[in-house]
Amino acid sequence: MTRAEQAEQPRDKAVAVDYSWQTEASCRGVDAELFFPATDEEAGAAKSICETCPVRMACLAFALDRNERFGVWGGMTEKERARLSPAARESIRRQAAA
Questions:
Q1: pLDDT tens readout for residues 34-59
Q2: What's the domain range around 59?
Q3: DSSP of 37-98, one letter per residue?
Q4: Within a domain: 63
Q5: Selection from 6, 8, 54, 2 nearest residue 27 by Cα
Q6: Does any domain span residue 9?
Q7: How far is residue 89's CA from residue 36's CA, in Å, rounded to a whole number?
Q8: Mean pLDDT across 65-93
């Protein structure tokens, strides 16, 4: 769907979001507190879980699409996600969609 077509969509309709990738996430069942560290230096444990996660790119794209401002998503902290270039963000979205 093009941006023009998206703009024409009624705003009162809820947009369907696919959360099915979460069932395969390595963090499933892990205490969520781990993924919301007080500092980037404390994010290592969460990032290590993300390293081998089969849905890491889907998770990261999910966070980027929603402008998630807190926590570790797809192995990146909020500061790391904020530093991504538009080209890097698009590349992540493409990889997640593949």
A1: 999 999 999 999 999 999 999 999 99
A2: 30-97
A3: -SSGGGGHHHHHHHHT-TTHHHHHHHHHHTT--SS-BTTB-HHHHHT--HHHHHHHHHHHH-
A4: yes
A5: 54
A6: no
A7: 22
A8: 95
Spatial separation of the C-alpha atoms in residues 61 and 91, rounded to whole Å: 10
Tokens (6 digits) for 10: 């009624």
- Name the one residue in this structure whose structure tokens are 């966070």: 63
**Each residue of 15-37: pLDDT tens digit?**
567 788 899 999 999 999 999 99
Other beta carbons less than 10 A from residue 41's beta carbon: 8
CA dist., res. 46 & res. 32, Å (int): 9
Residue 83 lies in a domain: yes
Tell me whether residue 53 is in a domain.
yes
Its pTM stands at 0.80
Contact status, residue 35 vs residue 46, Cβ threshold 8 Å? yes
